[in-house]
Design brief:
- The complex is a heterotetramer, with 2 copies of chain A and 2 copies of chain C.
- Chain A is of the alpha/beta class.
- Chain A folds into 4 domains: 10-210, Pyruvate-ferredoxin oxidoreductase, PFOR, domain III (Pyruvate-ferredoxin Oxidoreductase, domain 3), CATH 3.40.920; 234-414, 3-Layer(aba) Sandwich (Rossmann fold); 422-495, no CATH class; 500-625, Rossmann fold, CATH 3.40.50.920.
- Chain A has 19 helices and 22 strands.
- An 8-stranded mixed β-sheet of chain A has the order 6-5-4-1-3-2-14-7.
- By secondary structure, chain C is α/β, with parallel strands linked by helices.
- Chain C has a single domain, classed as Rossmann fold, CATH 3.40.50.970.
- Chain C has helices spanning 24-38, 57-60, 73-83, 95-100, 103-112, 157-164, 177-189, 211-215, 242-256, 276-283, 285-289, 303-307; strands at 45-49, 64-67, 88-94, 117-122, 125-126, 132-133, 168-173, 194-199, 224-226, 263-270.
- In chain C, the strands form 2 sheets. Chain C has an 8-stranded mixed β-sheet, sandwiched between helices. In chain C, strands 5-6 form a two-stranded antiparallel sheet.
- In chain C, helix 1 (24-38) crosses helix 7 (177-189), helix 5 crosses helix 6 (157-164) and helix 6 packs antiparallel against helix 9 (242-256).
- The chains are: A alpha/beta, C alpha/beta.
- Chains A and B meet through helix 11, helix 12, helix 15 and helix 18 of A and helix 11, helix 12, helix 15 and helix 18 of B.
- Strand 15 of chain B pairs parallel with strand 2 of chain D.
- The structure holds thiamine diphosphate (TPP) (2 copies), iron/sulfur cluster (SF4) (2 copies) and magnesium ion (2 copies).
Amino acid sequence: MHTGGERSLGHDDLTWLIGGPQGGGINAAAEGFAKAATRAGYRVIANIEYHSNIMGEHSYYRVRVGRSGHRNVSERVHVLVALDDETLVGERHAAFPGFKGHVQEVVPGGAVVFDANDGPGEHGADVLLCPVPYLELLEEALKGSSREGQASRLKVMTNTVAVGASLALLDFDLARYQDALRAEFGGRRADLGELNAKAAALGYEFVRERFADGFAFRLPRVSPPKGKPPMLIRGAYAAAMGKLKAGIGFQSYYPISPATDENVYLEAHQRDQGLVVVQTEDEVSAINMAVGAAHAGVRASTSTSGPGLSLMVEGLGFAAMTEAAGPVLVLWSRGGPSTGLPTRHEQADLRFALQPGHGEFPHLLVAPGDVHEIVRDSYEAFNWADRYQMPVMVLVDKALGTTFITTEDLGLDRLPPVDRGPRFREGGNGDADYLRYDFSDGIVTPRSVPGQAGGIYWSTTDEHDPRGHITEDAENRIRMQDKRMGKLELALREIPSDRFLTLHGPKSADVTIVSWGSTKGAILDALDILAREDKVKANFLQIRIMRPFPVSAVTAILRAAKKTVLVECNYDGQLGLLIREQTGIAMDQSIVKYDGRPFSEEELMDGLRHVIAEGPGRLMVSHRLG
Amino acid sequence: MHTGGERSLGHDDLTWLIGGPQGGGINAAAEGFAKAATRAGYRVIANIEYHSNIMGEHSYYRVRVGRSGHRNVSERVHVLVALDDETLVGERHAAFPGFKGHVQEVVPGGAVVFDANDGPGEHGADVLLCPVPYLELLEEALKGSSREGQASRLKVMTNTVAVGASLALLDFDLARYQDALRAEFGGRRADLGELNAKAAALGYEFVRERFADGFAFRLPRVSPPKGKPPMLIRGAYAAAMGKLKAGIGFQSYYPISPATDENVYLEAHQRDQGLVVVQTEDEVSAINMAVGAAHAGVRASTSTSGPGLSLMVEGLGFAAMTEAAGPVLVLWSRGGPSTGLPTRHEQADLRFALQPGHGEFPHLLVAPGDVHEIVRDSYEAFNWADRYQMPVMVLVDKALGTTFITTEDLGLDRLPPVDRGPRFREGGNGDADYLRYDFSDGIVTPRSVPGQAGGIYWSTTDEHDPRGHITEDAENRIRMQDKRMGKLELALREIPSDRFLTLHGPKSADVTIVSWGSTKGAILDALDILAREDKVKANFLQIRIMRPFPVSAVTAILRAAKKTVLVECNYDGQLGLLIREQTGIAMDQSIVKYDGRPFSEEELMDGLRHVIAEGPGRLMVSHRLG
Amino acid sequence: MATVLKPRDYKSDAHINWCPGCGDFGIVNAIQMALAELQLPPHKVAVFSGIGCSGKTSHYIHAYGYHTLHGRVLPVATGAKLSNKDLTVLAVGGDGDGYGIGSGYFVNAGRRNVDITYVVFNNSVYGLTKGQGSPTLRKGLKTKSMPEAAIQDGVNPLALAVSSGYTFVARAFALDPRTLASLIAAGVRHRGSSFIDVLQTCPTYNDLYTAEWYNHTQSGGPRLYRLSETGYDGKVKDPSDADEVVAKKVQAITKSYEWGEKIPVGVYYEVDLPTYEDALAERNPRYGREALVDTDFSDRDLSPLMDALR
Amino acid sequence: MATVLKPRDYKSDAHINWCPGCGDFGIVNAIQMALAELQLPPHKVAVFSGIGCSGKTSHYIHAYGYHTLHGRVLPVATGAKLSNKDLTVLAVGGDGDGYGIGSGYFVNAGRRNVDITYVVFNNSVYGLTKGQGSPTLRKGLKTKSMPEAAIQDGVNPLALAVSSGYTFVARAFALDPRTLASLIAAGVRHRGSSFIDVLQTCPTYNDLYTAEWYNHTQSGGPRLYRLSETGYDGKVKDPSDADEVVAKKVQAITKSYEWGEKIPVGVYYEVDLPTYEDALAERNPRYGREALVDTDFSDRDLSPLMDALR
Ligand SMILES: Cc1ncc(C[n+]2csc(CCOP(=O)(O)OP(=O)(O)O)c2C)c(N)n1
Ligand SMILES: Cc1ncc(C[n+]2csc(CCOP(=O)(O)OP(=O)(O)O)c2C)c(N)n1
Ligand code: SF4
Ligand code: SF4
Ligand SMILES: [Mg+2]
Ligand SMILES: [Mg+2]
């Protein structure tokens, strides 16, 4: 894997990885560095891998930094920062095949920063070893302060020493990182900010003096952008932003990884944004509260993950049957099935999200592929919910939710206007005339909301007549089912076609990659690499709205394609099944991955190169990363 | 619809329909007649339509009787027995299109038996009207008995008068019906049996004297079969029989139409069959108890309907992830979505049943098409559950569950032997060696059960290692997912190919009808009619095991087919979608029905004739029956 | 509409299909009487119901009506109420709906004290699914449609409600709609989660707890008596006095075990405590001033959120 | 295996990944001590757990271990126990697991009185999802990881358990494994549904109910005291005496509200009543004689069922 020429990548493509025990502060360390790098004028993508555990298991953060920016992470580590032994050599307690440590991922010419008490394990010949006495340097940092002698209690601060140490190798502007530390510890804890800044400086100096000389991978000072620095954002926040912008009033949720991040973010903004966030007793309650809120006329939403969706399908059918204007359900997928891999990544909920419940009912399913699309889709989901009076699902995943990326602009100013859909306005005779489920004209009946004079209606999850009362009459049934299901066709007609899919890259290509959701960044990066390194002309069909399915547009593109390659992070190749079901077209080849982690650049490139060279079939790729 | 020549059908095809208010005893009346006819040597198919209501709404039973036997009901009513006004002229309180009464369904030359106080409404010219003074005759019947003067309290007995009256028209052996009445009222209520017999006789005489002469549609005495009479059975009992034969020990359930019938039947046999039936607090509890029981080593099952399945998917994922040997879930579909049409028919849960929960996990899905197939599949489901250590779903529906049909033999003697799958037997070192989720050899690991010495294991809904402990390791994950999903391929290889599908009728045909489940009877009847009346050579591909899907067999048959017509009782044509997903082949035409009732013979024939004559497309059929 | 609203103004024109003589008629009448007593404009009332015979109630009342899912009526009603605090929200449902499949929501709604009124139609059977025993049927009892007697104990809904935190807990009888109406009105007036367990006859399936059974003990007199007539006072005088609160809770729970020859009806427990809405208003004063549904969020400023990410 | 089983014989070799100092260690130790006290062969014990930090417990015990779903541990354990009545069945899980998402199952399991023992790890937080408030966190309280204080009331698990019908209801402290072990052993010995609420410290997220808090009231002494030391007797002497049963239930519920400076631990309530299995055996004597899992059903005769249809 470690092909030559990497030194020349220099500051345009550098991966820094920090690993350590969960709960040991690697999030703060990595995010601090990532933010400092962004503010310094670099572009960053940073993702975390962690266990379903609170303290002790191996966790690591991969931060890729460059001038031009990547949309996916790479396995080739230039600087490894090890906070513990396991980061270096792997899981000692694993009875069955276990992770073997990150030292193996360090490229020739790269470096490992580690505690002087640990051994680095097996490593490439051309790797710079930088043992650093973490605790001693921390003790020194605390000296003279009110915390002197408390090093073992403040052991988490050795992270700062380690990060500082690594920055010396990179020739990175230490002050930027120190600023990030000071920003993190505000108010009463300001002294800790200062102590951390000092600890970072001691680590920095230690390495600068002993190891940094001649290290090839550097992030020297560049001129940062003028004006406000860019944001470092992840999908969890992007979804919340889209919802807030859309005017969300009510969010109910039950804690579950990886949906909790979005929920906690919204919860923290209840006061300043005026919304109500309710932590419920379970997911059944969460969806049903949201349906109640949607019927009451508020823009309502809930967010969950696969196990939660399994409990929410009942409520989705309820919303669809009663033609509630929503709710919007954001599904943050994780590794399945069942409890599965709670903190890991997978795109294995698509099929379930396409038929989320018994019987036949309409809903809209959209799967954004990056933070900008998440903002847009989370926002527009509410317009669709109101306009078509059906639940709308936004399908995202762990990788999208947690991966930080640098961006200047979320596009909030370019969103379409708020559309609350057809609303009932009181006319002549009030209630007597109003039919909430009128099927006589048009498919979507203007809705009233409780409290509105003249708009009284009934609704039921049983089949019902135009007034909303139960009936089992055959003729009425047919018309009501046609009315409900017909809204899918209406949505297909009304929603602009470019919202359904995007063909990235050249219109015509030798290879057409087909995928959805969070693989977008990886595939866009791969298109560049294929063009640059392999001289392969490839394009990428990204399908974004899955229901209603854009049959004719997809058919046209796939019929014209020379060779199609499906890429998905699941076992079955679920989008491939959907495409075949809807268009009859089978993908020529597929690359799947279901090891609980998103595609690294190298995994995807390996896969693509393999299938481009070989005949048809399904290829499972995995580099078995930690 | 009412083409000529029906009189000649005579006793080989006669439809008798009784309608009245729910709770007014039409079930007993119709089932009594159906049983009497079966014992008299006729073959019967009888189905009921009723509301989600306890008393008062319109309900009716359609009983088709003949010598050679039909597998579906017909709309052409020869004798209509009306217990109330609504049966004649329809739903008076319906604000929106409502049922217009059964009198319209009576064929020329047919008859209507009704209360002399009611008016028959609009009817064909050639229909025999038989007003009968129900209550007066009942009063007469009670005269001299200890119940004299109680006619209005015993009003439900007017049913017996009415049925008796109709039998005179048919020239049916009254004594047979009286026997059925006496059998129904045993023990302490024997006097009621006698009184009913008398009431029947009075009705019979009343009509015989005044109307019966020259009535063309008759069921004269025939020589009944020797030995034990055949059974009159419905799917609900067939499923229970299959389960009992398989050795079921534990059934948990939560009441829901139309699954309740099977559950109540099993519940009633707890004492004599030694099984445990637990009525739980909801479906979540029902499935989880069954999973617990399956892990404990008992053959365990639960039965529900769509809304229940929406609550059980979580438990299915649990069972699949922990490789429990079951449970068997029998899904009695009804009209959806949401609460939908609780007591009506639909085949709209197939897609959901194919992906019942989040993530990717194996399960087996089989959809029997008649009572014999239900017995077989409910039985063999337990073998598959044990053999492949996965949950097995048996997909049936309201029509199959409630429709009575005459049969001599359930095939219990021709079932394959019980197969409990690979079992762990204690060897050398006990626990230390035993790996419940071993992936080193073979796909299905021999299982131990709690209580078994040496077989201790752990299990978890999280991803796990061979010992059953949680691990998030990538390599282990891939192997475990391959192990679990690989069992589907194993099942596809091992299960005999004729269990997956049946091609009924000629191998090669001009039209190939494709369908599944409860449409089987209707389609088999239609094949006969097409051959006889339309001279169309048609065959019928019935797909029975849906997951794993028999791709190559289906592909071969469909590739060879000249014209394919999909027939389904749902909106989307869900089997069509599955076939296309799996084989790429689209059906040429489709006939769908989603009015909450199964296909009548006439609806299906109308549909088939239409699509055979016309070009490709989707045809919705419904005669808007009550 | 008349200036003075009458019970009939709360009748919808939906066709009622309960069995003749069903206790549910008394309850729906009582709800209509209570709404008239409170003179609430029908469009300011929303009735949420579960699934069951009882679940059909929302169709029969002239007010916004939501016939929801089996066991989920409380979360749905909660979501609606929190979205429009100016609405009068009634939740109704069966005993299976509320104490069986819905028991988790019953318990957790009690903890929130949202200002809604929950009326449970307690007939000790699953009516609409044809008479299985419901969670209130006691061990050893067997109604006519059951093949075997119950082998699990019945729940004690009142004790459960008090333990769960409802701030108004009462019991009434379906065949005494006048008293029931005044209890429902009191429940609606009460700020916070009110719960009323209504003993309801099901002449079709429950041949144990019949009108006759309720009206005549073995010794002849009626089985039901009013708590108020015995000097019982369930109301907490000083909600800040934790000892009094516990004492009144324990008193109510003790009473709740009285079942047999004598069954008390009336208010078992009542306390004035801040509602969930009060807590939300404390967090965000605008919530206290206007209903969420009327709030205009178009002025939201997200720049501080974005700046925090820079 | 040694003739005399030691606690360590019930230790599995799974890697434990709870936080250092977590109260869960005390509970798992206590379970192992209880099993040793009872001298149960490990293969005759099955431990079912929910999802949460607490849910990992089943992996750490050398016995059949089922780490099930969030909130569903009781139905799963019930299904297994009814299928093999000879098995000793322990159910364990968190307070979120049991009193939140699982509250409906908690209530309904109480009604059945199946012979299982349910141990709840009550730390007032959702540990594994990073410290949100759990159902036992009282209104107004805020642990360090919560952005806002709780605005709903906490449940009272003991009152709920008594109201629901558990026949053995106790409370213990995770940091006193010896007492806890003897309570667990008593719970296992008790025929019927035993429930033990274990006050568990979560040093990572719960900075309110810390070891320090439990061990020292403001006035210095320990907050926890043993019911038995005060002469409290929760055991019903005569289970057929309805009055005594109610009195003991009320006594237990009254005690359950004692929370603050003094918190009682020990057995709140206990009564010997026939179990669900007893009722099944009454219905079908074979059930009483042999475990369902050992029953051979190959001799089933379906001809009477078929004949009834002829
Ligand atoms: C999820 C789900 N499970 C089961 C049902 C079937 N079901 C309809 S009503 C009912 C029980 C009704 O009993 P109860 O709540 O006591 O109301 P009642 O009919 O007695 O008024 C059941 C089980 C359903 N509608 N939904
Ligand atoms: C259906 C479902 N929803 C949510 C989750 C996420 N989840 C895992 S553990 C947990 C809460 C654990 O809290 P508690 O039961 O108190 O156990 P503790 O971790 O405190 O021991 C939650 C919400 C899940 N696994 N399944
Ligand atoms: S079944 Fe019972 S509860 Fe239902 S409508 Fe009839 S009498 Fe009322
Ligand atoms: S988070 Fe709390 S409950 Fe969970 S392991 Fe850590 S200390 Fe224990
Ligand atoms: Mg009921
Ligand atoms: Mg907890």
